[in-house]
Amino acid sequence: MKEIFWNSIADYNAATWPWQIVMMSIASVLTFILWFRPSEWAKTATKIYMVAVSLWIAFVYYMGFGSARDYSNVMTIFWCMIALSWIYDLATRFSTFQRSGKSGALGLVMLVLPLAYPFISVSRGLEFPQITTPMLPSAVALYMLGMLMTFNKKINFFAFLLVLHWSVIAISKISLFKIPEDALLAAACIPSMVIFVMHVLKEYDRPHKPSYATVRMLVMAVALLLAGCMIAA
Amino acid sequence: MTQEYIIEIANFIARYLSYMLGAGVHTSRVVRNSKRIGTALGVDVSIHTSQKTATLTVSDKDTRIFSTKVVDIPAFPISFEWNADLSALSWAAHDEKMSLEAIEHKFDELVSKPKMNPVFVLFMASLANASFCRLFGGDIWAMLITFTATMVGFFTRQHLTRRKVNHYIVFIVSAFVASICASTALALGIETAEIALATSVLYLVPGVPLINGLIDITDGHIQIGISRFVNAFMLIICIAIGMSITLMLVKDSLL
Q1: Are residues B199 and B228 in the same domain?
Q2: Inter-chain touch A161–B151, beta carbons under 8 Å
Q3: Using CA atoms, how far apart are residues B106 and B216, in angstroms rounded to an integer?
Q4: Same domain for B98 and B122?
Q5: Is the overall model pTM greater than 0.90, yes or no?
Q6: What integer pLDDT is reported at residue A65 of this predicted model?
Q7: By CA distance, what is B145's nearest residue in A?
């Protein structure tokens, strides 16, 4: 199973590396525009990019090159759901892709982290094409998380939860497929969960129970549990 | 006792019982509590309940003045807190001989308490499902996947409910979303992946309507009991539809 996993990554990289560079370039340009000259069209284009990159992972990576893996169709459906969450966001114009002035630095770090994937692979003795790249599912999920964190005034929470689910999968992959690069996503998802949930809690205009402090403690406890699982993995 | 006073009592008890029935309290308790409040206020209360409406007659034996009301039962979320608080209110009214104004004031106070935090419910339901996964033999990876799969499914449910989507559709979509997320465990080759898949939809099981249906039937409220049973079974069928879609897509079969 582990061999099939790495062979499919090698085939994918060998066949699609020019396209991967194109996709990464588009992502970089859109991120720069959103940061320096935010505009309505750039926000819409970013959401369209999110849909496109999710469908790329679903159909090109999983349905195309990952079809030899067991249950790769499940992953195709899952990434289609992520695409659907961005289509829904696009239709309802829910998330604003605006900076809130908080956690922006952390978001920038997360945006840069996908670029570290190939370097980590090379540093542990792997060679192209059998290396991880920024256009693999976990790196793409990390990029999405970075975008949500950087432009976090009003976020697509459904997409975040799907990325969180993917992060849990990434945690298990560290142990099951010996892919330590996924520790980056796993490490990024834990503070993101705390920050985004706190953000949602502060948005409520009516009083709720239990108190804010109790819910915060619960979220922290879950975050620590996830961190414990990651360390154990 | 004047006609106006009887109407006021009828109006209050109608509101009281509609809130209790709407919050998922079983019928015999609602009837018992309403009658207790009536006794405290010196009137007789007769109640007929159905799934969507309730009819009550409040009468004074001495003056033979009566008032009949038909009230819609609102669809509130299941609330054990309202169940306990409003039951205690009926006892307080009876034991302390409270006036109608005092009972109404206390009632308004109880039903306007802050609601549960949706984020708290989201996390607790997800933790509960992960615990179920462990109880059924799931390993740590299956538990983690069940936790986040439930989170995604439960959030979908909360979001669609807020948007006032038909609740049968909400159940189908939520069951599908949670189970498709949990099915990612299959792709990882986790040994207990099927336990994660099976337990990811447990948060949707309509336990309270099922129990209430059974209690109502055994207490002689056959009509509303059957209505509640049918309603609960419809929801179970919706969960089955959502999960079946996942199984057909993922495993190419229903088993």
Answers
A1: yes
A2: yes
A3: 28
A4: no
A5: yes
A6: 93
A7: A168
